[in-house]
Amino acid sequence: MKVDIDVGDGAVGIELNSLLLLDNSVSNVQRLFGQAIYYSKGNIIQNLIIAIIGNSIIQEKPYIQEIQKHLNEIGVDYVYIATKRRS
User: Fold this and answer.
1) What distance separates the 2 farthest-apart alpha carbons in the chain?
2) In the chain, what are the helix, strand and coil shares in percent, each to the nearest 5?
3) Quick count: other Cβ atoms within 10 Å of Cβ 87?
4) Whole-angstrom Cα distance, residue 53 to residue 64?
5) How far is it, in rounded angstroms, from Cα 53 to Cα 83?
6) Which of 46, 36, 27 is nearest to 73 (CA)?
7) Residues of the chain with pLDDT > 70: what percent?
8) Which residues touch 78 (CB under 8 Å, ≥6 apart)?
9) CA pair distance 83, 87, nearest whole angstrom
10) How many C-beta atoms surround the C-beta of residue 80 within 10 A?
11) pTM above 0.70?
12) What are the b/e assignments for 17-53, b being 16+ CB within 10 Å?
């Protein structure tokens, strides 16, 4: 497995995740946690950032708080990137 974006040969890793894919499958949420643990605890990436990209109501999703909680527990940073629809 390889992190989506590797900056500085493992100094910083960014793992990109789609809210749409997380919404549609519990196994994708489980995969996100597996990646977070694998990259952060396996000495592969020194500073891991999980980026979840989706629509502007991203913070209203009930499982987002659960994701935050578990990522905090393992010391992984996260960011939500809200997208806008094209008109």
Assistant:
1) 44
2) 45, 30, 30
3) 3
4) 12
5) 7
6) 36
7) 90
8) 49, 50, 51, 52, 67, 68, 71
9) 13
10) 18
11) yes
12) bebebbeeeeeebeebbebbeebbeeeebeebbbbbb
SS3 8: coil
Q: What is the DSSP letter of 73?
A: H
Within 13 Å, how many C-alpha atoms sit on residue 1's CB side?
Answer: 15
> Per the structure block, which two tokens stand in for 27?
């196994």
Higher per-residue confidence, 14 vs 67: 14
Amino acid residing at 66: E
Question: What span, in angstroms and rounded, lies between the C-alpha atoms of 20 and 55?
Answer: 9
CA distance 65 to 61: 8
Query: Mind listing the pLDDT tens digit for each residue in 35-68?
Result: 999 988 877 888 999 999 987 676 677 778 888 8
Q: Show the tokens assigned to 16.
A: 């990109």
Measured distance CA(49)–CA(77) in Å, rounded:
5
